[in-house]
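ok so for the tutorial part 2 we go from a plain amino acid sequence to predicted structure tokens. step 1 is just haveing the sequence, like this:
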Amino acid sequence: MKAQTVLEALTIRLKEQTKRFNPALESAPVAILWTDERREWEPVLPRIKEALPELFALGAYEPDQRSGPGVWLRMVADGQAGSVDPERTAILYLPGVGNGQLRTDLRGLKGDPQLAPLAELQYRGCFWRQENGKDWTLRAFLESRRGGLGLQVSASQEAAQALKAAMGKLLMQNLPALDAMAIDERTLNDLINPAPDETVLRWLTAPEATRAEHGTSWESFAANAKKRFGVDLAKGPMEVAQRILASKSGEAAHPLWEKYVAHWHSYPDAYEVFRGIAPPDLLQGAERYPRENDADERRLADELLKAASLEPVAAAQAVLAAESRHAARREALWARQGHAPLATALADLALIAKAFLEPVAGGKPAEAARRYAENGWRVDAAARGAMAMAQQAELEKPIHAVLVALYRRWLEKQAEGFQWMVKKDGYPTWNLPAVADGTVVLFVDGLRFDLARELEATLHKDNGLTVGLEPGFTSIPSVTSSGKVWVSPARKLADGGNGGDFAPRLQLGKTEGAYTAAKLRKAMEPEGVAVVDTENPSLAYGRGWAEFPGDIDSDGHAKGRKLARAIPAHLDDLAKAIRRLLNAGWKQVWVVTDHGWLLLPDGLPKAELPARLTETKWGRCAVLKDAAADADWLVLPWSFDPAVRVALAPGISAFSSGREYDHGGLSLQESVVPFLRVQRHGPVAGQPRLVAVSWNIRRTICTVRANDAAGLTVSIERLGSTIGDGEAIDNDGKGRVVLEEVDDLIGEQIAVVLRSDGQKVAEERLNFGEAWEGSANAA
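step 2 — the prediction. this is what the tokens look like for a chain of 779 residues:
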């Protein structure tokens, strides 16, 4: 259950306390002890009791009010009094008692008639208190992120006083609305004496509760509301809601509508009240009425289903016509509230319809890839967005009908055109550039180009980063065993191998081995490429290879069209991984992938390929054994062995059937892979770095200065071997290396190195005896 009010959150926290025990080692608590030495919660206890029938208080013996002395409360805890539901645990509120006071030596409580009977409950029950052992005060509960609500609460004395007076009303406030504001003296005073427009809007959905809050002052408030806003509360919420919806600028009730539009988050149930009102005039102002918005959504669903049943060109034109009629609704209040999901999805569907009507451009495969990287990816992103909305709002039928009618055919046209280009001009070859020191290559399985564009936009928001994205081409075929090696720094170490599973041979020292993820990492080690953990990256040095643990491709195969809603979480995690690598000192992160994918709500079509013609068959490709079959398929050589002939399924079909998430044949979505380069500006705070290198007159002592390097060791290396005796960097950032017999070293290239626990974390290359002064702000 998700709390909507402060009171609901409070009751949830108290109930959760009853479950915090290990059933394998402990018995369930017989009671929750809620101590409140300052009695801060006592004034609002009656309201909390209304929400918690298992809540009892220490005090005078009034069983009907669930109040009584210590001995009676102990009987309540033991189920001998109070009639607590057996499925619940008694919560005992103890005003004026601190938890430290109760948790004293039992002998010290013998003379206290109230606490003595309760003392032993600390062993059979548990306390509801802060992690630091202190009582929950009002401010602590509202402010704390550990067990509390994590709200922003002013620390002023005035706010503390106002909090006590306003707590009764604060309990009933909408929690999401409070989360977006600072709770200060002004906010709390507005609760104690709320603005009348806010009160009227709250009254629309909770008339009895709002009236009860005002008590005897309600009649006076209602009279003022009638005078100020021209609404008669005595006529009931529906009559007042009608006046609000029908109000125009300059009329008395219009400020209520303006208040609602500006702060609708604070009145989450008002939509249902307004929904019950029919517009008096469908020709003027009907867009303000939720009932008409709902009718428009139903009309749009019918329009889309009808459009999907037409031949493709007419279907696309019908979708664009619907867009012209409904686009304005996306700017209306009800759409901002999420009550016009189909009008929202229509923007994506219209983009697909427009793209479908455009002719397929010609040219060479590289030109097609460039066009796709610039604009074509937007169609895939739109289809994915529409699928996500369909799941969120349970609108699969109309949205999927349009996707099948138009997006599927757009994919087919694009794939057939691309395959024709490849058959005529050949498949382009793309190489990962040479990886420079300070760069880590981050591999992500299944990062389609549209996802990379969204990641690029997210990273561009960080002013400390430079982001560049360009298209590349994956291997033939695009299976991970080939594609991952293709985009790795170890690609030059691979050739040939097992054409059946497309696992290239990797050079492993003096031996060879067929691809596995572990062998790929091992093959990179002699090349000076370090394997980096994305979750806990070591301090950067040299060149690196990292693998993103969030496998988009596996998630797609497992979830099908539900992947559309999971993508934002993957991209959020990926952006965090990139920032972690940059924060560890890597100057650049290069993001690469092995392939893309296709996603269709009704699954990809199946292409039949007789088993007698194939050595092996995958969903997206097959190895042919009969040269005569070449004429019937697009056949390309395996990227790691031209002698292996790979047949690719035509169009967007696959040699497997009916899967919503699949790879199909040769398509732009599958083959054009993103190459994303992210570079940081300036050094990372706390990253060790050399600032200066100097030599004494005799060139036997090298002195260095470094930042953020206290305790690290400094050394000089020549041809990979350490020379001289290095010392640790002191707290002032200074260190030195003492050398002997240096005459033969003059002018030789060396490296001044900083190490942490033997791991190289910083290095500067220069000639022996050469002074060097770097910038402390250099990256």
